[in-house]
Design a protein that fits this description.
9 helices, binds flavin-adenine dinucleotide
Length: about 325
């Protein structure tokens, strides 16, 4: 393998029924930095059906080139079809790096593709940079239970592959006047090679409403809530603010709320404009998922709780007294 044959930074653009998910747009913004460091192109790769609108979106968000693979067999995400398409594309174009979101799709696809291409995969990254001397990507991720941040390089093989947590990078401002070259690749995956079939699409109640990773306001509850029914007060505050509900792992492990709501090292990474931490102590593993929030508001009855070290606004008090007042006041706005 001659590493010099491999060029450009690819971002796998995740779509849900044709709609581009935010994580791909966030990765385009950071991909621009990585590609720029090596004078390479930033390429968005989209697999699906009827992708013209998605191609327009990624162009506005800064892709230099867009590669589209369209077909009935790619209408809904399936592991076999998408792997086949991505592997064939990579073998043809030889990208230097492929970035995936650390989502259910990305976590499924990235390791498979890296295995087929006989290269490495760094999962669940929280930062990406380029080594100024070698041009290799430096992938940073928590290791040893979050006690260290490890920087990993894939120096011997290409492409460099990895998944990045949603919410770690910000999207660029879209610019509709931007243009990109669009390449349409005809790659077929025979039906018999696709071993799974989507029977039905049911939106889970937990996923209804504002998406946690994409919310501008997140209201999270922790063990301080005491019991599952008390999440109602968190939901009420989130609803009044048009935000999403989050939770600490302690609340999730207690079975009070779905794991889909967990924020933190082993949960989701969020970067909202305002993050409310209610009855959450502020363990390092929780902070790993929310510390990039613009404004952090902590409500905790323990003035020594570590969450106050990162909070912009702190209320020392009983959340059952403080939150109802907030709800009433926000209702007036
Ligand atoms: P606690 O630490 O018990 O804090 C509860 C807080 O509520 C206290 O500060 C208390 O003063 C306050 N409180 C109690 N009653 C009230 C009241 N009435 N009003 C106001 N305040 C009140 N944790 C995560 O959150 N996300 C993760 O992704 C995650 N991943 C982990 C991964 C690993 C490998 C490990 C080892 C741990 C992980 N954890 C994670 C767990 C983490 O270490 C903490 O145990 C967890 O975050 C604690 O949750 P908590 O703050 O809700 O509970």
């Amino acid at each position: 393998m001659d590493l010099k044959d491999y060029k450009n930074v690819w971002v796998f653009i995740e779509t849900a029924r044709g709609e581009v998910r935010n994580v791909g747009l966030e990765l385009l913004n950071q991909g621009r930095v990585l590609a720029g460091a090596n004078n390479e192109k930033l390429v968005a790769v989209i697999i699906g059906k009827d992708l013209d609108a998605a191609a327009k979106t990624v162009t506005a968000y800064g892709a230099d080139e867009v590669i589209l693979v369209e077909g009935e067999e790619y209408k809904d995400y399936n592991t076999d079809g998408y792997t086949n398409a991505m592997v064939k594309l990579s073998e043809k174009y030889k990208p230097a790096a492929i970035l995936f979101g650390g989502t259910i799709q990305g976590r499924d696809l990235a390791p498979r593709i890296s295995c087929r291409l006989k290269t490495g995969c760094t999962a669940d990254c929280t930062d990406l940079a380029v080594n100024a001397e070698t041009g290799d990507i430096e992938w940073t991720r928590p290791a040893f239970g979050g006690s260290i941040m490890a920087t990993i390089v894939c120096s011997q093989t290409r492409p460099q592959v990895g998944t990045v947590r949603p919410g770690v990078f910000k999207k660029a401002q879209p610019d509709d006047s931007k243009t990109a070259s669009i390449i349409r690749e005809e790659i077929r995956t025979p039906a018999e090679e696709i071993r799974t079939k989507l029977v039905d699409f049911i939106k889970s109640a937990e996923e209804a409403g504002v998406k946690l990773e994409e919310a501008e306001i997140v209201v999270s509850g922790g063990r301080g809530l005491g019991k599952p029914e008390n999440f109602a007060i968190i939901k009420e505050l989130a609803d009044v603010l048009g935000g999403a509900v989050g939770a600490s792992r302690a609340a999730v492990d207690a079975g009070w709320i779905s794991p889909l709501r967990q924020v933190g090292q082993t949960g989701k990474t969020v970067g909202p404009k305002i993050y409310f931490a209610c009855g959450i102590s502020g363990a390092v593993q929780h902070l790993a998922g929310m510390s990039s929030s613009k404004i952090i508001v902590a409500i905790n009855k323990d003035p020594e709780a570590p969450i106050f070290d990162v909070a912009d606004f702190g209320v020392v008090g009983d959340l059952f007294e403080v939150i109802p007042v907030l709800i009433e006041e926000f209702k007036k706005i």
